[in-house]
Every structure is written in C-alpha cells, then in structure tokens.
Amino acid sequence: MNYKYWIGLSSIEQIDSRFILKLYEHFGNIEKAFNVSKAELSAIEGLSVKKAENFLKKRDELDLDKVYDRVVSNGIKFYTYEDNQYSSMLKEISDPPAVLYYKGDLESCNLERTVGVVGSRHCTRQGRDSVKKIIKELAGTDVCVVSGLAAGIDTIAHTAALDNGIKTVGVIASGFDFVYPASNKKLYERIENGGGAVVTEYYPTFEPLRYRFPQRNRIVSGLSKGVVVAEAALRSGALITANLALEQGRELLCIPGLITNPNTAGVYKLIKDGAGIVTCAEDILNAFNWELLSSETKQNQEIDNLDVDEKKILYTINIEPKTFDEIQAETKINTEKLLGLLTMLELKSLITQTADDRYKKE
Hints:
Blueprint: H1 3-10, H2 17-27, H3 30-34, H4 38-42, H5 49-59, H6 64-72, E1 77-80, H7 88-91, E2 99-104, E3 114-118, H8 125-136, E4 144-147, H9 153-163, E5 168-171, H10 185-195, E6 196-200, H11 212-222, E7 226-229, H12 237-247, E8 251-254, H13 265-272, E9 276-277, H14 281-288, H15 295-304, H16 308-316, H17 324-331, H18 335-347, E10 351-353, E11 359-361
Helix pairs in contact: 1-6, 8-9, 9-10, 11-12
C-alpha cells in the first residue's frame, strides 16, 4: 500500500508539497521517492540541499505505520496526488498539495460548481450583510462555497452557506489537532457533520503557524472556479488569495462597498485592474456561465407538473394558512382524496403543516 509513504512524507515538517511532488515526479513511484538515497537526491536538479538533508534525517526517524495510524484512527480521510479522486482543479495549480486531508463529506460537494469567498477578518456590517444576501440567493443550487474558516468574512460565508442548505468547503492552515480560531469549533462541527468538508494539506500535528495561512490561500483559490472578494485592505490575506486566483487563471469578482471603508481599498484596486463586480448571485452564475435553477424556479416547475386538484389546494392556501376543513370547503375534494393530496404536497416540500394544524404554502 503506497498510502503510508505519502502520509509519511507529508508528516515531515521540514519539507513541503513542492519537495514531495518533485521526488514523486522524478521517480514516478512514491515508495522509491521515500526510500531515495543521498546520492540519488543530490542528482535531482533544483532540489534544496538543506531540505534534502533535513528530509533524510527525519525520514530515518519515522515509524511509517505509527504515522499512518495516527491519521486513520482519528477518522481523518485523505486523497493523495496520485489518487483518481484527487481534485483535477488542484492539479492545475503550480504547487498542489501532495496530500489533501479532510473530515466530512467531500464527495457530496460539487467541485465543478465552486466559488471561493474571501474577505477581511475585521469586516463591517455592510460586508457581512452583502455576503449573506448573495449566498442566500444561491440557495437551491448545487454551488459549493469555498473559504478559509478564518474569522470575519470566511466565517460569514460558511455559516450563510450552511443556513441556506448549500455545501461548503473550509480550508484550514493547520492539522486537525487544532481548531483555529477556537471560536469556530461549532462551525467546524457543522461542516463536518453534513454541511460539506474541512480540508487541509497539513498532517494532524502541524500547528497553525503564521506562514501557513498564505500557503493555505492557494488551495482556497485552487479549489474554486472563481473567487469573490467581499472586503479587503491593500495588505491582506484576501488580496493574496485574489492574486493567487489570477495567477491560477480563475475568475475574480468583487463585492463593492463604501469608499470610506479602509477594507474596500483592496477591492476597488482589483476592480480598477479588471475584476468583475458582484451585487447578486446572478452575477456569479453569469460570470461562470452556469445555467442553474434557483429554488423558486424549481418550485414553479414542480407546480406546473401538478394535477388540477393539487393546484386547487395551493391556490386555496396561497395567501394564508388554512385548516383541513377550510381547504375542503373551498376545493370540494372528498376527505380521503384530500388527505392523500395534502400528504403528497408535503412530501414534495410545497406545503407544510403548522403547530395549530393549518396548512401553509412553502
């Protein structure tokens, strides 16, 4: 099994994904790459001598089985660079992660319909409200929201996605032994327990060190078809992600804000340089040429396919909730049939029953 060699290499803090993949591409086999000799290493062009020396020293100290079990026993799943399931979008970037660890249900996320949302950790109310509005308008689509699980706009983006039934992927800058910021512990859990997936390139024991955050950003943009910047100062992590998106050939979009807000200086610089403007979800769909049905459109299509009596019921409760007797008095449908139709409409999520036994339109 080659997995333990991928995990073993990934667990060495003194090397990075670029180093690991250079070895893998040179030898074409991860086991050979792991067991390389000093002489073979020195023959590889462009390899850092210091990293090579650190690698050999740390590799010889590794217990591969122990390192691998540390991942599996903690319920951490992963894809390696050579797995067929590894994101094809990440393979497009110049520095893809050698291993992508994750918790949650990454398979349920549509990675062909991904939009990154980034912005200031110290966001304004207007910034928060703008992100909430746009993500809410994506409800009912199969779009997946990608962000960095940081405080501020990232947190708002993930939470808005979850609140509106949209899958979300959070990319973190540490291993799974750490939750950063600690205030997002419940958000991590919501994502992992059905809302999407939390992913990282870092082995579980790797701490959230400062330099790992900008490294993390290339994965946020790399997993995204395009990136939406909500608020960003001229020097900010969000602007780093925006520039990475451009380098990776991704679409770049910006939510405009107040010109008196220092956090919009970076946004307006990007707009002046040619980034698109987003004021509603439709702008995102148009930018990516995604022909996606909104929840309202889907519901209207379902209503069009109903029979005459089902439409009568919906028309009857269109304005305000009504009791069974009130619905029957207006529709003239017999009791047995009406019970069946009401049940079917509930199953189709077109109506719901209130606490006081009335039926209302969804």
